[in-house]
Amino acid sequence: MDKDMESSKPQDAETVAKPVASAARITDLDILRGIALFGILIVNLYIFANPIAIVVVNPGPWTEWYNQAALFFTRVFFEGKFITMFSFLFGIGFYIFTERLKLKGMPVRRVFFRRMILLLFMGLIHGVLLWPGDILVPYALCGLFLLFFLYRKEKTIRVWIGLILGGFLILFTLMVFFIMWGLSMPDISPGIKQGFAEANEGFLDLLARGYEVYAAGQFSEILNLRWEELAFVWTGLLFTPMGFIYITAIFLFGFLIGRQGLLENPGILRSLLIPRRHLFTVTGFLLSVVYAFTYYRTDPVLFNYWSLIQMYTIIIGAPLLMLGYSGFILFWLEENRFSSFLNRFAPVGRMALTNYIMQTLICVTLFYGYGFGLIGRVEPVYLLPIGMGIYIFQMAWSEWYFERYKMGPLERLWRMGTYMKRV
Question: Which residue of 44, 99, 100, 219 has the smallest Cβ count within 10 Å?
Fold first, then answer.
């Protein structure tokens, strides 16, 4: 049956490879995507300004009240929310992309598979050569999983979203209870503590070597360290709240929303989110405040009961606050409030891949030794204004670029590889 659905008469490849005309784009999605890139930059700056292992060091080297306040602010309003928004939009984009392939009579699975393999390749280059915090590899791998749901019923997709997130939370809960039970047993408690202590020492060693290697700026030494950091990141993505499992569930959620008729009625996203924006925002905000407070009670390596609260509040709170943000943004666009300002995010979102990689290039130049060598020297309180400065530059550059070209440079390469045709 699936083969029949993919075997319609194909259009001329040259027609297929043309970018979507600007009038046909769903501008709301470009604006949201551009805003998501800003939020992702703000969160990532802390990891650019320090080695990647900083994520398992709590409270970290910055204990002053103003730095802790800056980190608390980021955890409440940014952490988890904008990667969720970006993932949600990726799922919607999967729906739009595959529907257009169907209309053009192209082999949907084959073309999307090729698209994800290209994204995987770009992510590996980005992660190995530039920055270990790459998100393109997880996106490509989770994106391939979406193909299993291409022709599934909406009810099936809803069930799978629940199974994926619910199963992850249940397994994490069991793991924490098992650890706490083991710590309460005199016979095995010392061994458990020793094992986690050794793991923590390994993370601290990775962090210390990161400061040393990145500050020195020798690219060959950075590459040698990078493989250790990538192993650390990719292993962590199996257990962290914003990892493979969560991304897949949010992809499916975005795909499900797209299937409500987004192509036929681009305004449906507004009708779904605007009426619920207050509920989403208030609930998501309260959960995010609790999440931020858990950092003062948890050990990033040796999980405890506060780790459960942290996991549940980010898994539930981040999507809710993301939907609240989106609802208010769409409401302001609907009411023509701040629309001239919000529309300036659209060019950034139109070439999200290019701007994402550009953020990395700018930040590694700022923080690594082969650039300005600021790693470990910029306090968290300064990261928000630095991020705003970088993003304002990206807004201006994106506007300038689209006055001259129709498609971002990396988007053009990605499209050429996807359709195997010059565009």
Answer: 219
Q: Give CA–CA dist 328/349, Å, rounded.
A: 18
How far is 135 from 132, CA to CA, in rounded Å?
A: 9
Looking at the domain assignment, is residue 336 inside a domain? Answer: yes
User: Residue 284: inside a domain, yes or no?
Assistant: no
The CA angle 128-131-136, to the nearest 5 degrees, is 80
**Whole-angstrom distance between the N-terminal and C-terminal Cα of the chain?**
32
What is the domain range of residue 164? Answer: 2-274+321-419
Tell me which residue has tokens 């036929």: 264
Residue 287 lies in a domain: no
Count of domains forming the chain = 1
Rounded (5°) CA angle 38-40-43: 110
- The amino acid occupying position 291 is Y
- CA geometry: angle 355, 358, 361, nearest 5 deg: 165
DSSP string, 174-226: HHHHHHHHHHT-TTTHHHHHHHHHHHHHHHHHHHHHHHHHHHHT-HHHHHHHH
Say which amino acid occupies 171.
Answer: L
Question: Angle at Cα 226 formed by Cα 209 and Cα 61, nearest 5°?
Answer: 40
The sign of the CA dihedral 156, 162, 167, 168 is positive
Rounded Cα–Cα distance for residues 223 and 216 (Å): 13
Q: Which of 16, 1, 86 is nearest to 422 (CA)?
A: 16
**Any domain includes 164:** yes
CA dist., res. 405 & res. 412, Å (int)? 10
The whole-number average pLDDT for the span 60-82 is: 95
The two structure tokens encoding residue 334: 């609907």
- Report if pTM > 0.85: yes
pLDDT tens track for 36-63: 999 999 999 999 999 999 998 877 788 9
